[in-house]
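In the current project phase, the collection of sequences with tokenised folds has grown. A representative record is quoted in full directly below:
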Amino acid sequence: MFETIGIWIAALLTLCIFSFLYKDNPFYKFAEHLFIGVSAGYWACYYYHNVLQPNLFVPLFQEGRPIFIIPLVLGIMMLLHLVPKISWISRWPLAFIVGTYAGYYLITYLQTNALEQVTATLVPLVTFSSVVLFVGVTTGLVYFFFSKEHKGTFGGIAKFGIWFLMIAFGASFGYTVMARISLLIGRMTFLLKDWLHIIQ
């Protein structure tokens, strides 16, 4: 019985979301606000029990480690963004977080992303794919070299790099569209199979 009720609620909420295809309406706004509210409540509980409690409250109040007063104060200062008159105080912990993460992840991303990509590009030009990769990277870098005017041979190479960039962006966009289409197929399968039992 509870499973049937859950299927009906999910189906009606799905139809409320699909109603936006016609125009903006109260059914869509209800489902949207419900989704945002449930998500906010879920993540608030998740972060309290899995982040704040084990990483702040337990070390500070149960284990007696006073150094954790610093993140507690920074967190309270961050919440002052909700008070308009003193919202400027929230910029200090935000600047601290951004600076800390930038310094920490600079080395991490340099080793895992930048150097790995350079290593993956510098391969022997023995296969067609390695040649295409080398030409695409080289011409793409030439396009972003703005110290020299894009004219003549240099401009032709830069224009060739634009083609590689557009193909890469198009493939990325196509992948995103296919991901959204798969979500749509999943919802339609739910409606036609689990709710209406039209398909098996």
Summary: DSSP finds six helices and no strands in the chain. The chain has a mean pLDDT of 94. Residues 115-200 form one domain. Residues 152-195 form the longest helix (44 residues).
